[in-house]
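Kindly inspect this one:
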Amino acid sequence: WILFESDKTCVVSMKAIQVAEAGAPEVMKIAEIPVPTVGDNEVLVKMEFAGVNPVDTYIRSGNYPVLSGYPYTPGRDGAGVIETVGANVKDFAVGDRVYVTGGSTYAEKAVKPTGQVYRLPDNLSFAEGATIGVPYFTAYQALFHKAHAQGGQTVLIHGASGAVGLAACQLAKARGLTVIGTASTDKGKAAVLQAGAKHCFNHKDDAHFQEIKELTGGVDIIIEMLANVNLARDLPILAKFGIVVVVGNRGTIEINPRDTMMRDATITGMTMNNATPEQTKTIGAALFAGFENGTLKPVIAKTLPLAEAPQSHKDVLEPGACGNIVLQVNN
Protein backbone atom coordinates (compact mmCIF):
# COMPACT_ATOMS: atom_id res chain seq x y z
CA TRP A 1 0.00 0.00 0.00
CA ILE A 2 1.26 3.48 -0.81
CA LEU A 3 0.72 6.41 1.50
CA PHE A 4 0.40 9.96 0.26
CA GLU A 5 -0.45 13.20 1.96
CA SER A 6 -3.54 15.19 1.01
CA ASP A 7 -4.57 18.14 3.14
CA LYS A 8 -2.36 16.75 5.93
CA THR A 9 -4.37 13.50 5.89
CA CYS A 10 -2.59 10.20 5.31
CA VAL A 11 -4.61 8.14 2.82
CA VAL A 12 -4.04 4.49 1.96
CA SER A 13 -3.93 4.06 -1.81
CA MET A 14 -3.79 1.27 -4.38
CA LYS A 15 -3.09 0.77 -8.04
CA ALA A 16 -6.15 0.48 -10.26
CA ILE A 17 -7.16 0.92 -13.87
CA GLN A 18 -9.20 4.09 -14.29
CA VAL A 19 -11.43 5.19 -17.16
CA ALA A 20 -12.15 8.93 -17.27
CA GLU A 21 -14.22 8.94 -20.46
CA ALA A 22 -15.66 6.52 -23.01
CA GLY A 23 -13.37 5.57 -25.84
CA ALA A 24 -10.80 3.16 -27.25
CA PRO A 25 -8.90 0.70 -25.04
CA GLU A 26 -6.20 3.30 -24.48
CA VAL A 27 -8.53 5.36 -22.27
CA MET A 28 -7.72 2.83 -19.54
CA LYS A 29 -4.85 4.16 -17.41
CA ILE A 30 -3.15 2.88 -14.28
CA ALA A 31 -3.65 5.30 -11.41
CA GLU A 32 -3.19 5.54 -7.65
CA ILE A 33 -6.58 5.83 -5.98
CA PRO A 34 -7.73 5.52 -2.36
CA VAL A 35 -8.59 2.07 -1.07
CA PRO A 36 -12.39 2.04 -0.73
CA THR A 37 -13.99 2.03 2.69
CA VAL A 38 -15.63 -1.21 3.84
CA GLY A 39 -19.29 -0.97 4.83
CA ASP A 40 -20.99 -3.04 7.51
CA ASN A 41 -22.25 -5.62 4.97
CA GLU A 42 -19.19 -5.64 2.75
CA VAL A 43 -15.74 -7.22 2.51
CA LEU A 44 -12.43 -5.92 1.19
CA VAL A 45 -10.78 -8.36 -1.21
CA LYS A 46 -7.13 -8.26 -2.21
CA MET A 47 -7.41 -9.08 -5.91
CA GLU A 48 -4.97 -11.59 -7.35
CA PHE A 49 -6.49 -11.87 -10.82
CA ALA A 50 -9.25 -10.11 -12.74
CA GLY A 51 -11.25 -11.65 -15.57
CA VAL A 52 -11.60 -9.86 -18.91
CA ASN A 53 -14.95 -10.14 -20.69
CA PRO A 54 -16.47 -8.58 -23.82
CA VAL A 55 -18.97 -6.70 -21.64
CA ASP A 56 -16.04 -4.81 -20.12
CA THR A 57 -15.23 -3.44 -23.57
CA TYR A 58 -18.85 -2.44 -24.23
CA ILE A 59 -18.94 -0.42 -21.01
CA ARG A 60 -15.54 1.19 -21.66
CA SER A 61 -16.49 2.20 -25.20
CA GLY A 62 -19.74 3.81 -24.07
CA ASN A 63 -22.11 1.25 -25.60
CA TYR A 64 -23.32 0.22 -22.13
CA PRO A 65 -24.05 2.67 -19.32
CA VAL A 66 -21.48 3.27 -16.58
CA LEU A 67 -23.63 2.95 -13.50
CA SER A 68 -21.11 4.55 -11.16
CA GLY A 69 -20.18 7.49 -13.40
CA TYR A 70 -16.69 8.63 -14.42
CA PRO A 71 -13.96 7.98 -13.55
CA TYR A 72 -14.54 4.30 -12.86
CA THR A 73 -12.55 1.10 -12.47
CA PRO A 74 -13.46 -1.59 -15.06
CA GLY A 75 -13.87 -5.31 -14.50
CA ARG A 76 -16.75 -7.52 -13.41
CA ASP A 77 -14.87 -10.67 -12.38
CA GLY A 78 -11.98 -11.33 -10.02
CA ALA A 79 -10.54 -13.61 -7.36
CA GLY A 80 -8.40 -13.10 -4.30
CA VAL A 81 -8.30 -13.15 -0.50
CA ILE A 82 -10.52 -11.31 1.96
CA GLU A 83 -8.52 -8.74 3.96
CA THR A 84 -11.29 -7.01 5.93
CA VAL A 85 -14.89 -7.85 6.80
CA GLY A 86 -17.67 -5.45 7.73
CA ALA A 87 -19.28 -5.42 11.18
CA ASN A 88 -22.36 -7.36 10.06
CA VAL A 89 -20.60 -9.98 7.92
CA LYS A 90 -20.99 -13.49 9.34
CA ASP A 91 -20.49 -15.81 6.36
CA PHE A 92 -16.92 -14.77 5.47
CA ALA A 93 -13.71 -14.25 7.41
CA VAL A 94 -10.34 -12.63 6.86
CA GLY A 95 -8.17 -15.00 4.83
CA ASP A 96 -10.99 -16.67 2.90
CA ARG A 97 -10.22 -17.45 -0.75
CA VAL A 98 -13.07 -16.05 -2.86
CA TYR A 99 -14.15 -15.06 -6.32
CA VAL A 100 -16.32 -12.00 -6.92
CA THR A 101 -18.78 -10.58 -9.40
CA GLY A 102 -20.05 -7.06 -9.93
CA GLY A 103 -17.59 -4.30 -10.80
CA SER A 104 -14.23 -2.59 -10.19
CA THR A 105 -12.01 -5.68 -10.27
CA TYR A 106 -9.14 -4.19 -12.33
CA ALA A 107 -7.61 -3.02 -9.06
CA GLU A 108 -5.35 -4.26 -6.28
CA LYS A 109 -8.29 -4.24 -3.88
CA ALA A 110 -12.06 -4.14 -4.23
CA VAL A 111 -14.92 -3.71 -1.77
CA LYS A 112 -17.84 -6.05 -2.40
CA PRO A 113 -21.27 -6.61 -0.85
CA THR A 114 -21.50 -10.18 0.37
CA GLY A 115 -24.06 -11.00 -2.32
CA GLN A 116 -21.27 -10.65 -4.91
CA VAL A 117 -18.77 -12.83 -3.05
CA TYR A 118 -18.45 -16.61 -3.43
CA ARG A 119 -16.10 -19.14 -1.91
CA LEU A 120 -13.40 -20.36 -4.27
CA PRO A 121 -13.06 -24.16 -4.28
CA ASP A 122 -9.66 -25.32 -3.05
CA ASN A 123 -8.92 -27.07 -6.34
CA LEU A 124 -9.14 -23.86 -8.36
CA SER A 125 -6.41 -21.24 -8.68
CA PHE A 126 -7.07 -17.52 -8.34
CA ALA A 127 -6.61 -17.16 -12.09
CA GLU A 128 -9.30 -19.79 -12.67
CA GLY A 129 -11.53 -18.14 -10.09
CA ALA A 130 -11.36 -14.88 -12.00
CA THR A 131 -13.04 -16.58 -14.97
CA ILE A 132 -16.16 -17.78 -13.18
CA GLY A 133 -18.49 -14.79 -12.84
CA VAL A 134 -19.53 -13.58 -16.29
CA PRO A 135 -18.83 -16.79 -18.26
CA TYR A 136 -20.29 -19.45 -15.97
CA PHE A 137 -23.08 -17.39 -14.43
CA THR A 138 -24.20 -16.28 -17.90
CA ALA A 139 -24.06 -19.80 -19.30
CA TYR A 140 -26.01 -21.24 -16.36
CA GLN A 141 -28.62 -18.49 -16.50
CA ALA A 142 -29.09 -18.97 -20.25
CA LEU A 143 -29.35 -22.75 -20.13
CA PHE A 144 -31.32 -23.42 -16.98
CA HIS A 145 -33.15 -20.27 -15.91
CA LYS A 146 -34.06 -19.00 -19.39
CA ALA A 147 -34.16 -22.10 -21.64
CA HIS A 148 -35.08 -24.53 -18.82
CA ALA A 149 -32.73 -27.10 -20.36
CA GLN A 150 -33.33 -30.74 -19.52
CA GLY A 151 -31.31 -33.90 -19.97
CA GLY A 152 -31.98 -35.53 -23.33
CA GLN A 153 -32.46 -32.25 -25.19
CA THR A 154 -30.15 -30.96 -27.91
CA VAL A 155 -28.46 -27.58 -27.56
CA LEU A 156 -26.56 -25.61 -30.20
CA ILE A 157 -24.00 -23.21 -28.77
CA HIS A 158 -22.78 -20.63 -31.27
CA GLY A 159 -19.28 -19.27 -30.70
CA ALA A 160 -18.69 -22.15 -28.33
CA SER A 161 -14.92 -21.66 -28.10
CA GLY A 162 -15.31 -18.36 -26.24
CA ALA A 163 -15.44 -18.09 -22.47
CA VAL A 164 -19.24 -18.26 -22.15
CA GLY A 165 -19.43 -20.92 -24.85
CA LEU A 166 -16.99 -23.30 -23.20
CA ALA A 167 -18.76 -22.84 -19.87
CA ALA A 168 -22.08 -23.61 -21.55
CA CYS A 169 -20.65 -26.77 -23.15
CA GLN A 170 -19.44 -28.05 -19.78
CA LEU A 171 -22.69 -27.24 -18.00
CA ALA A 172 -24.94 -28.71 -20.69
CA LYS A 173 -22.88 -31.89 -20.94
CA ALA A 174 -23.02 -32.33 -17.16
CA ARG A 175 -26.83 -32.02 -17.24
CA GLY A 176 -27.15 -34.72 -19.90
CA LEU A 177 -27.84 -32.63 -23.00
CA THR A 178 -26.45 -33.42 -26.42
CA VAL A 179 -24.15 -30.49 -27.16
CA ILE A 180 -23.39 -29.10 -30.61
CA GLY A 181 -20.95 -26.21 -30.88
CA THR A 182 -19.58 -23.90 -33.52
CA ALA A 183 -16.12 -22.34 -33.74
CA SER A 184 -13.97 -20.80 -36.46
CA THR A 185 -10.59 -22.52 -35.99
CA ASP A 186 -9.31 -26.05 -35.56
CA LYS A 187 -7.96 -25.08 -32.13
CA GLY A 188 -11.34 -23.70 -31.16
CA LYS A 189 -13.17 -26.78 -32.40
CA ALA A 190 -10.84 -29.02 -30.40
CA ALA A 191 -11.50 -26.96 -27.25
CA VAL A 192 -15.27 -27.20 -27.79
CA LEU A 193 -15.14 -30.97 -28.15
CA GLN A 194 -12.92 -31.21 -25.07
CA ALA A 195 -15.49 -29.17 -23.14
CA GLY A 196 -18.22 -31.71 -23.83
CA ALA A 197 -19.64 -31.10 -27.30
CA LYS A 198 -20.53 -34.18 -29.32
CA HIS A 199 -20.20 -32.28 -32.62
CA CYS A 200 -18.56 -29.03 -33.61
CA PHE A 201 -19.01 -27.15 -36.89
CA ASN A 202 -17.06 -24.30 -38.47
CA HIS A 203 -19.36 -21.28 -38.32
CA LYS A 204 -17.47 -19.65 -41.19
CA ASP A 205 -19.03 -22.28 -43.44
CA ASP A 206 -22.56 -21.17 -44.38
CA ALA A 207 -23.55 -24.80 -44.91
CA HIS A 208 -23.27 -25.57 -41.20
CA PHE A 209 -26.86 -24.52 -40.50
CA GLN A 210 -28.23 -27.05 -42.98
CA GLU A 211 -25.79 -29.68 -41.75
CA ILE A 212 -27.00 -29.22 -38.17
CA LYS A 213 -30.63 -29.44 -39.30
CA GLU A 214 -29.91 -32.68 -41.17
CA LEU A 215 -28.00 -34.09 -38.21
CA THR A 216 -30.65 -33.32 -35.57
CA GLY A 217 -33.94 -32.76 -37.36
CA GLY A 218 -34.09 -29.56 -35.27
CA VAL A 219 -32.40 -28.43 -32.06
CA ASP A 220 -34.31 -27.73 -28.87
CA ILE A 221 -32.16 -24.84 -27.63
CA ILE A 222 -29.80 -22.36 -29.25
CA ILE A 223 -27.44 -20.26 -27.13
CA GLU A 224 -26.77 -17.32 -29.42
CA MET A 225 -23.61 -15.25 -28.94
CA LEU A 226 -23.92 -13.10 -32.09
CA ALA A 227 -27.59 -12.63 -32.84
CA ASN A 228 -27.09 -9.90 -35.44
CA VAL A 229 -25.32 -12.45 -37.64
CA ASN A 230 -27.10 -15.72 -36.89
CA LEU A 231 -30.64 -15.20 -35.62
CA ALA A 232 -32.44 -15.31 -38.98
CA ARG A 233 -30.77 -18.62 -39.78
CA ASP A 234 -31.20 -20.01 -36.26
CA LEU A 235 -34.99 -20.07 -36.42
CA PRO A 236 -35.40 -22.53 -39.32
CA ILE A 237 -33.22 -25.14 -37.56
CA LEU A 238 -35.18 -25.09 -34.31
CA ALA A 239 -37.34 -28.03 -33.30
CA LYS A 240 -40.99 -27.43 -32.43
CA PHE A 241 -41.28 -25.39 -29.23
CA GLY A 242 -37.58 -24.60 -29.50
CA ILE A 243 -36.00 -21.55 -27.91
CA VAL A 244 -33.19 -19.15 -28.82
CA VAL A 245 -31.51 -17.40 -25.89
CA VAL A 246 -29.74 -14.25 -27.06
CA VAL A 247 -26.61 -13.81 -24.98
CA GLY A 248 -24.63 -11.59 -27.34
CA ASN A 249 -25.41 -9.09 -30.10
CA ARG A 250 -23.51 -6.35 -31.94
CA GLY A 251 -26.04 -4.90 -34.34
CA THR A 252 -29.43 -5.30 -36.01
CA ILE A 253 -30.93 -8.11 -38.09
CA GLU A 254 -34.14 -8.83 -39.99
CA ILE A 255 -35.99 -12.08 -39.28
CA ASN A 256 -39.08 -13.75 -40.72
CA PRO A 257 -41.60 -14.03 -37.85
CA ARG A 258 -43.26 -16.95 -39.65
CA ASP A 259 -40.22 -19.04 -38.72
CA THR A 260 -41.27 -18.67 -35.09
CA MET A 261 -44.97 -19.28 -35.78
CA MET A 262 -44.44 -22.59 -37.57
CA ARG A 263 -42.51 -23.97 -34.60
CA ASP A 264 -44.16 -22.21 -31.66
CA ALA A 265 -40.63 -20.98 -31.10
CA THR A 266 -39.42 -18.52 -28.49
CA ILE A 267 -36.73 -15.86 -28.75
CA THR A 268 -35.61 -14.45 -25.44
CA GLY A 269 -32.80 -12.14 -24.43
CA MET A 270 -30.90 -12.01 -21.17
CA THR A 271 -28.40 -10.06 -19.14
CA MET A 272 -27.07 -11.01 -15.75
CA ASN A 273 -27.94 -7.51 -14.56
CA ASN A 274 -31.55 -8.74 -14.41
CA ALA A 275 -30.82 -11.92 -12.46
CA THR A 276 -32.51 -12.07 -9.06
CA PRO A 277 -30.56 -12.70 -5.82
CA GLU A 278 -32.25 -16.09 -5.61
CA GLN A 279 -31.03 -16.99 -9.09
CA THR A 280 -27.44 -15.95 -8.43
CA LYS A 281 -27.45 -17.85 -5.13
CA THR A 282 -28.64 -20.98 -6.95
CA ILE A 283 -25.99 -20.53 -9.63
CA GLY A 284 -23.21 -20.03 -7.09
CA ALA A 285 -24.13 -23.23 -5.22
CA ALA A 286 -24.38 -25.29 -8.41
CA LEU A 287 -21.07 -24.01 -9.74
CA PHE A 288 -19.25 -24.68 -6.47
CA ALA A 289 -20.33 -28.32 -6.62
CA GLY A 290 -19.34 -28.62 -10.27
CA PHE A 291 -15.89 -27.12 -9.74
CA GLU A 292 -15.28 -29.09 -6.57
CA ASN A 293 -16.07 -32.44 -8.18
CA GLY A 294 -14.17 -31.62 -11.38
CA THR A 295 -17.16 -31.60 -13.71
CA LEU A 296 -16.44 -27.95 -14.51
CA LYS A 297 -12.97 -26.61 -15.30
CA PRO A 298 -12.15 -23.06 -16.47
CA VAL A 299 -10.04 -22.69 -19.60
CA ILE A 300 -7.50 -19.86 -19.54
CA ALA A 301 -6.22 -18.73 -22.93
CA LYS A 302 -3.98 -15.83 -21.92
CA THR A 303 -2.63 -14.08 -18.82
CA LEU A 304 -1.52 -10.45 -18.96
CA PRO A 305 -0.28 -7.98 -16.32
CA LEU A 306 -2.68 -5.30 -15.12
CA ALA A 307 -0.78 -2.64 -17.07
CA GLU A 308 -1.74 -4.39 -20.30
CA ALA A 309 -5.47 -4.01 -19.74
CA PRO A 310 -5.79 -2.06 -23.04
CA GLN A 311 -4.31 -4.99 -24.95
CA SER A 312 -6.62 -7.42 -23.16
CA HIS A 313 -9.65 -5.46 -24.43
CA LYS A 314 -8.38 -5.85 -27.98
CA ASP A 315 -7.64 -9.54 -27.57
CA VAL A 316 -11.01 -10.46 -26.04
CA LEU A 317 -12.87 -9.26 -29.16
CA GLU A 318 -10.59 -11.00 -31.65
CA PRO A 319 -12.28 -13.66 -33.82
CA GLY A 320 -11.40 -17.23 -32.92
CA ALA A 321 -11.41 -16.69 -29.16
CA CYS A 322 -10.54 -19.85 -27.26
CA GLY A 323 -11.05 -19.57 -23.53
CA ASN A 324 -10.64 -16.80 -20.98
CA ILE A 325 -8.28 -13.85 -20.63
CA VAL A 326 -7.17 -12.80 -17.16
CA LEU A 327 -5.14 -9.91 -15.74
CA GLN A 328 -2.62 -10.57 -12.98
CA VAL A 329 -3.31 -7.78 -10.52
CA ASN A 330 -0.94 -8.51 -7.63
CA ASN A 331 2.45 -10.10 -8.35
